[in-house]
Amino acid sequence: MENQQYHILLYYCYAGIEDPAAYREEHHLFCIENNIRGRIIISSEGLNGTVSGLKEDCVKYMDYIKSDPRFADTEFKIDTHHSHAFAKINVRAKEEIVHSGLRHLNPREKTGKHLEPHEFKAMKDQDDVVVLDVRSNYEHELGHFKNAVRLDIENFRDFPGKIKELEHLKNKKVLTYCTGGIKCEKASAYLLEQGFQDVYQLHGGIIKYGMEAGGEDFEGKCYVFDNRLAIEVNQVNPKVISKCYICGTHCDRMVNCANPECNEHIPICESCGWEYEGACSVQCKGHPKKRPYNGTGYYQKNTNGYNPYKGFYQKPNKEKIKSSFYDKADS
């Protein structure tokens, strides 16, 4: 099945869900029966997901979501791939669809003005504009917009604590951006709540900007939360900005440390990759649990014993699920 066309979907939708646990079960079953794999978060405030599947299965999945009036305006960023980008399906019910600690903010009611990629491109270099990256360190260190303000945060939930560092920008037009747009919904809303007057967000994030505006002035690669780890964005004036974690040479080749107890996602050049056998340090290279290195720096998660219908309140048709999930596409 290697020549089959797969799609990778990135999406989110802020919409009220009265019973997230029940909808999680329904949603999970649909994914299993249609061989959709990935990570999906469901909460009372909406949906957030990155999934992969054969093109026809992804079309069914998008139709399934949009057929629900609550999610009819969901926008999907669609990329192509040679295989599944995930090993399994994981659908979880959580308090927020992106962990921010800002549950009191509803982007349906208040958020920054959405800019389409061409609008963002036209505004980003104006004198009264500041471009603000609201992603985590490991993301913007791999790639970011030229001249963007980047915050020292390990997780998005740390964003509110950094607002004081941005006080001097209150009289500027603030253009926020992230990978797919979801973090900006809450980040821009919080900036407005804190007294920033003119706040915008890149609609569809870096991914949509690369697809529709050529990715101009996005330097480096974009970190993504699937098996690819990083993707090219800029087809106009690309530039490598990240450096090999080991030797310091310019490198945007993302790998997972071969030591599973470290498992850091970091740039490591090909030469150091082979020298350190996929590890990020001498200590990790010598770790007794170090995984064999094959030159890619990607390690398929062990799915032995994976039970896709574990935890359901009602038992689904296991034979139907097994034939669909395991036999329909690549194994």
TrEMBL record:
<dbReference type="InterPro" id="IPR036873">
    <property type="entry name" value="Rhodanese-like_dom_sf"/>
</dbReference>
<protein>
    <recommendedName>
        <fullName>tRNA uridine(34) hydroxylase</fullName>
        <ecNumber>1.14.-.-</ecNumber>
    </recommendedName>
</protein>
<feature type="domain" description="Rhodanese">
    <location>
        <begin position="125"/>
        <end position="218"/>
    </location>
</feature>
<comment type="function">
    <text>Catalyzes oxygen-dependent 5-hydroxyuridine (ho5U) modification at position 34 in tRNAs.</text>
</comment>
<keyword id="KW-0819">tRNA processing</keyword>
<dbReference type="InterPro" id="IPR022111">
    <property type="entry name" value="Rhodanese_C"/>
</dbReference>
<dbReference type="Pfam" id="PF00581">
    <property type="entry name" value="Rhodanese"/>
</dbReference>
<dbReference type="InterPro" id="IPR001763">
    <property type="entry name" value="Rhodanese-like_dom"/>
</dbReference>
<dbReference type="Pfam" id="PF17773">
    <property type="entry name" value="UPF0176_N"/>
</dbReference>
<comment type="similarity">
    <text>Belongs to the TrhO family.</text>
</comment>
<dbReference type="InterPro" id="IPR020936">
    <property type="entry name" value="TrhO"/>
</dbReference>
<dbReference type="Pfam" id="PF12368">
    <property type="entry name" value="Rhodanese_C"/>
</dbReference>
<dbReference type="InterPro" id="IPR040503">
    <property type="entry name" value="TRHO_N"/>
</dbReference>
<keyword id="KW-0560">Oxidoreductase</keyword>
